[in-house]
Amino acid sequence: MPGIVIVGVQWGDEGKGKATDLLGERTEWVVKFNGGNNAGHTVVIGDEKYALHLLPSGILSPGVTPVIGNGVVVDLAVLFDELEALEARGVDTSKLKISSSAHVITHAHRTLDKVQERFLGKRQIGTTGRGIGPTYADKISRVGIRIQDLFDESILRQKVEGALEQKNHLLLKVFNRRDITVDEIVDDLLSYAERVRPMVCDTGLELNDALDRGEVVVFEGGQATMLDIDHGTYPFVTSSTATAAGAASGSGVGPNRLDRIVGIVKAYTTRVGAGPFPTELFDEDGEWLAAQGHEFGTTTGRARRVGWYDAPITRYATRINGITDLVLTKLDVLTGLDEIPVCVAYDVNGDRFDEVPVNQSDFHHAKPILENFPGWSEDITGARTFDELPQNAQDYVLALEKISGTRISVIGVGPGRDEVIVRHDLID
Predict the structure, then answer these.
(1) Which residues are the active-site residues?
(2) What percent of the chain has pLDDT over 70?
């Protein structure tokens, strides 16, 4: 079973990095297939905590070949800052491979991202301002700059000229900002060309060859299902395909090579940025959950919005992705609650919806229909088997499994690398 996709079920920050790291010791390849440095993974190894933004989490596992696929947009300054920071801590980064077809984020993209978001005023979508959306927009408009363009200065200059023409009109005439010169973009990109050259290859070919050899390849998604450009809470979404389908298109392998789809879901729900969030809490429970779960974005540092577990969203994500296994993270955060509410359906203007409404307006006005489950007070961070959990914690997990429609194969009981309970192996 060599092809394993890891995707977020909710709005991100579910703990995908930990799941990838859990598999990392038994896999040969880990691929990041979408997004850029607009999302982060936090991995705790012993007393060491690593915050990764652009690099795949597998880079922390010796013996794993980390890959940045063609579906990713790359900020080269961030890439090398992150590599240097890991190398300073003794992490071997020499095996990193980057697709020659991955698109490059430039200063122009970052500038546009920030000014366009401010221009929206009250209609802001909560972008990170890192140039992700404008880079994907250029990709779709066929004026993007790819990694391979850095190795031919003449082609690079022509492409930058074409890409900047419209952007400078916008900056000057709409946003009252100075124009950006071709030279400053070209010179900046060329300064990274020789450093990145040894990492660049046909990653799709390498991955297919690895799968042909029977090697285990983990495809690591950035963001999450509810932020997917097609299936998320549009327009409050990211600009890439964050679902399992993106693993094939964003890495250059066929969908028939994907054998298992693993969904990562928190024992409660969070999201960063604007947009609908039916179970969001605005009371002391929300403050308590945020504090217990240390709910601040790995990349942005922004406080996350917090709410109860949403079963309709999990069922929706299971259908969209074809999820075969769930990894339930942060179960330990709920320790100490007398009762734990779970959203089992929605009330929209008096009508019950057991599934996510097809109409975005209905979803925006949805109120959670909650079912309460008994909590527990025992410390569960030392549990390594399901039977070692308190009975109420076991009952909570089994209830989530039943109403979510997918088996819960792994349970996170703490932030550490080994603080997990494995009910079903994700590889065998």
Answers:
(1) 13, 41
(2) 94
